[in-house]
Amino acid sequence: MENFKSVTVFCASSVPTNQSYSDLAKEVGKYLANNNITLVYGGGNRGLMGDVANACMNDNGKVIGIIPHFLAAREYAHTGITELIFTDDMEQRKKLLFQKSEAILVLPGGMGTMDELFEAITNVQLKLIKHKVILFNHEGFYDSLLVMLQQMQQNNFVAQSTIDKIIVVINMEECIASLINKEIEND
Prior knowledge:
Helices cover 44% and strands 18% of the residues. The chain has helices at residues 19-34, 47-58, 69-72, 90-99, 111-125, 143-154, 160-163, 172-180; strands spanning 6-10, 38-41, 63-68, 83-87, 103-106, 132-136, 166-169. Strands 4-3-2-1-5-6-7 form a seven-stranded parallel beta sheet, sandwiched between helices. The relative contact order is 0.17.
């Protein structure tokens, strides 16, 4: 099995009230660095974004941050990473986040993370990208979302085959198993 060489991580740019989310982001960053997997992310240095990037950099990993000019001050653009790319807007940012990686890992986050998750899965569904999409349901964070997706499927608003493209993991061992298996089921 071949490992992914680059993974886009979508996650919160804000500091969570639950410390375990920060611990998870740090564990992911450390894992990526120690396995020579380039971290591609939103370019901020706060919240889970900062946690994952700093952990990766602290273990000599490669980190590519992508952030629009207008968000650089609000999300505190991370100038201490391997490469920081500025974009004109969110659309260009997301396009580069997809282009520069082979897989997508979604950690806990808010509205921006949801936007990125749904754009990723829609792009996979439409075969615009061939990424593996991994949803880290840490401590049940995404339980309600998974129920909502099933409700959408039951009402014929989304195909089960689309939902099946989201690989749900609940711990680091499952996450690693998904990241070390580069094979992606395409139907």
